[in-house]
Amino acid sequence: MCLVLICCLASCREQEKTIIYSEPAIIDTFDQELVVIENIDLALKVDSLFNEALKELQISGAAVSILDGNTAVLQKTYGYSDARSKVPLTTKSVFRIGSVSKSITGVLSGILFQQGKINFDEQVSQVDPDFSFYNSNYTKDVKLSHLLSHTSGLPYHSYTNLVEYGLPLHKIVCRFSEIMNLESPGNVYSYQNAAFAESGAVLSQKLHMPIQNIYKTFLFGPLGMKSASTSYADLKDSDNFAKPHKKIAGIWIPQSVNKKYYNAIPAGGVNASIEDMSKIMRLLLGNFPTMLADSTISILTTPTIDTKVRYRYYKKWENFDKSYYGYGWRIHTFKDPTTGVSDTLIHHGGQVNNYRSEIAIDRKNGIAICVLFNSYTPLANTVIPKLLEIVKAIHK
């Protein structure tokens, strides 16, 4: 079996094409200090939730940020960066955020779209000639918007195994032509990692810059995300990163950081602290319109495709109605059974290397929540509705 795999991998092009990269552009900086005015009632209730989780060994550690408009009403950490040596987490501790990277990529794409550097209707095969599908008629129809919304038409999780194997993305993408498409692009939702990560190749070709530089130049730098990065080396070299943990025999044991998904950065290779994520949430709440206007946020978070969920954890959230996907974001609708009034929440979760992450934005009420865990935990499945309930009770 190993020999077959090696032979198949060898069939892809051996070297990535040479791209002449331009120097990073100089753009405005929006690094305004986040005002933290802790709501005492809120803090007591949130403390109770996370301290109980620590006591019951549900989590090894967590970083939490809750925004109300442009103010953090809570930004703090619980537990340890290293449970063995009892090193506490701080709000600057860096986590891997897994598939929440897709939401970060959606935001980055929105910024570039607003600056006129890309178009969501970009034909992928025109930007990357090596991109092709089994059905050649579909190849020319795949747009950047299809990659960002999981509507390329590929089967569920196509070649995620090769992403986790560590194969360079360009060697994975050249094999899409070997897979029978489910449908034509735009007609079916099918979650992807490799195909979503191809969006980074499109951005890189359009801007003539490595994708890592694009994140730094157009998002991390301007927004003041000082701890955010996109590589294994950046995380390992950090002097304050949250070690991943696994519970063994009832004890949280620190684990090694692995390199999975750093070959597919847009899909799962972003590192960030809770302070960094607070800045993303401020952006999505409309506080920096010259960087990301409400009209652009609407494009990113307008339902593109019904995900028709059946077993996902968020389906169990109270009053859940439907879930859609936009550009890097899930869009959930909720319907009050008494009044029939609908509400909307944009959301994404992530999981990689014993890290879990959750982010949710209620733009209507100006509330944003992000929680980063450095262990897998069932609490991640319910933490967003639990925190929303606490926040809304305080608001009344």
UniProtKB/TrEMBL annotation:
User: Where in the numbering of this chain does the Beta-lactamase-related domain appear?
Assistant: 46-378
State the Gene3D superfamilies in the record: DD-peptidase/beta-lactamase superfamily (3.40.710.10)
InterPro entries found in the cross-reference section: Beta-lactam-related, Beta-lactam/transpept-like, Diverse_Enzym_Activities
Q: One matching Pfam family, short form?
A: Beta-lactamase
Record SUPFAM superfamilies: beta-lactamase/transpeptidase-like
> What's the protein called, per UniProt?
Beta-lactamase-related domain-containing protein
Q: Which organism is it from?
A: Portibacter lacus
